[in-house]
What we know:
Blueprint: H1 2-22, H2 31-44, E1 49-50, E2 55-58, E3 79-84, E4 86-88, E5 91-92, E6 95-100, H3 107-125, H4 133-146, E7 158-160, E8 167-171, E9 184-187, E10 190-193, E11 197-200, E12 203-207, E13 212-215
Antiparallel strand pairs: 1-4, 2-3, 3-6, 4-5, 7-8, 9-12, 10-11, 12-13
Helix pairs in contact: 1-2, 3-4
Amino acid sequence: MERIKAIRKAADIASQTMGFAREQEAVGMTEKELAEMIDERMRELGASRNAFDTIVGAGENGAEIHHVPDDRVICEGEPVVIDLGCVYNEYCSDMTRTVVFGGSPGEKYREVFEAVKESQRKAISAVRAGVNARDVDAAARDYLEEKGWGKNFVHSTGHGVGKKVHEKPSLSPGSEDKLEEGNVVTIEPGVYIEGEFGVRIEDLMVVREEDYEILGR
């Protein structure tokens, strides 16, 4: 299917770009500078444009879900939320990682990161055709509640992706949508601690009849 083929390519460009971003010596660089490098790299790899404005949120800025990169300097050992996506042959990709450039981020960050990572795994495991989208959201949300971070998860677990970066189905607590075979959705739980840092991990996947296919790396 041409739609899936194009999204798979867009996801591959996003993955390669995220790898490029993680390899940079970003300590001392501003959020804006890293975001500009990311945008340029996506175009070099064949993207026609961004799917949305790239997010780079260092330290406390990572706790802002839709942070606009500014002149904040990236420091050693602090969490940095990077959310990027591109358009290839009219179709979008969307990917987030939370990374640390040098140094050690500390135990609190490690605890939150592992909680978010496991909540994403639980949500991904719930993905298949016929499942209520709200149940996928609940798989991630319930785990974060159990770990004491539920109040810090302030957005939906995911959304559909196609020619627009936000489409149906909505993977949210009140969603009436059901997952269908061929849907392309994100799974992106996050924890945001105001004044400290944020953690979000986002992957793109195709819904299959019995399971899923993760796009990108």
